[in-house]
Design a protein that fits this description.
By secondary structure, the chain is α+β, with helices and mostly antiparallel strands. The protein is about 35% helix and about 20% strand. Strands 1, 2, 3, 4, 5, 6, 7 and 8 form an eight-stranded antiparallel beta sheet that branches.
């Protein structure tokens, strides 16, 4: 004769199952709430000292200049917009809660967050020489672990863009009329620490760039 389970045991099993379902539902709800909070507020900007970032980017452009191996040329002292800067114009609030703000024609900048960028140009580099130098730099830098993100050589445009090894630092080389070759670099937006020295415009203070050192000294 088959022994039937006792009613009390069936009730206990049912309560345990219901408890497990309820616990699973609570866990799923907590994870969902945490996920939504992350989407709503967005991933926080990393924290980085702009002065240190500027030194790193300066070294990046020096590496590019060394890879170009230009036999001659001079720093274009009148290059428009040249120099090292840390500004927050392109660093906007993150997260879904700022979605509509960032759709405006003039989206707001996130306070105390900047991207550091640098650019300079070498003059006296004819286009034919620039083509050879840029290809030389592409080969040399990729062998060192740099990754090419854009390489265009047409009758009207010569540009090479790369990211540095194990980094999001972007560096580029572009030829311009009047035998000028620009080198530019930028780092991602980052929040600067409290107490960072600021200039009269309210932007972080940076040391003057040294690269390319052979043309500045």
């Amino acid at each position: 004769m088959t022994q039937q389970p006792r009613p009390g045991r069936r009730k206990t099993t049912t309560y345990v199952a219901m408890g497990l379902v309820a616990a699973g539902a609570l866990t799923a709800t907590a994870y969902a709430a945490q996920w939504f909070e992350g989407v709503w507020n967005g991933r926080p900007y990393p924290v980085a000292a702009p002065a240190s970032t500027a030194q790193r980017l300066d070294a990046r452009t020096q590496a590019v200049y060394d890879a170009l191996a230009l036999p001659h040329g001079a720093l274009d002292e009148n290059w428009a917009g040249g120099g090292m800067d840390a500004t927050g114009y392109s660093c906007h609030p993150v997260g879904l809660r700022h979605f509509f703000d960032n759709l405006s024609d003039t989206p707001p900048s996130e306070p105390h967050v900047v991207d550091v960028h640098d650019n300079w140009a070498v003059k006296g580099v004819a286009l034919a020489e620039a083509v050879t130098a840029v290809e030389r730099a592409r080969v040399a830098l990729t062998h060192q672990g740099w990754k090419v993100t854009e390489y265009e050589h047409t009758s009207s445009r010569l540009v090479l863009r790369l990211t540095a090894p194990d980094s999001s630092d972007a560096v580029g080389i572009e030829a311009y009329p009047e035998d000028r070759l620009q080198v530019f670099t930028t780092a991602e937006c980052a929040r600067y620490p409290e107490g960072t020295p600021l200039d009269s415009a309210g932007d972080p203070q940076l040391a003057a760039p040294q690269a390319p050192s052979t043309l500045r000294h």
